[in-house]
Amino acid sequence: MTERCDWCGDDPLYVAYHDEEWGVPCRDERALFELMILEGMQAGLSWLTILRKRQGFRLAFRGFDPEVIAHFEERDRQRLLADAGIVRNRAKIDATIGNAQALLDLRARGIDFVDWIWDSVDGRPEQNSWRNLGQVPASTPRSTALSKRLRKAGFRFVGPTICYAWMQAAGLVNDHIVSCHRHAACAALAEA
Q: What is the pLDDT of residues 74-102, one digit of tens each?
């Protein structure tokens, strides 16, 4: 039997996310932006709820293209608020639009979003060696620092806990427990 981190349970969608995506270093701008937005959308909800609505989010937010989202208008907000395929929370929807605008502002200043985010871990995934889920922190000094940088740049729904969950999801940190079959695989990807 394959050992996994306890948090993913046995739901096939959750297991696939754990086995194929969570903790894999992500250096694609759009995918990194998507994960940031989804982590913000998850605040107060279960991650499984977000995974089940992920395709709906991708459709509603036009493939998470920041250039498109940054130009959403009031009619787009109304369309999103009426879309049962996503989390219909005005503050989170407004934050998504604002975050796309903040990302484009970074670009306009000559800052590469991917490099800027990865600078928070000195460009290399942090490798942790947790033995059980209880050892994994909800936030760290690095996620707190990243949260402050993001907020200063105009991003929202990026508190230290959300940032840490995002760092885990996007592989900036390897928080698979050491007995999980993905721990060594993600550690190897960090070396690649």
A: 999 999 999 999 999 999 999 999 999 99
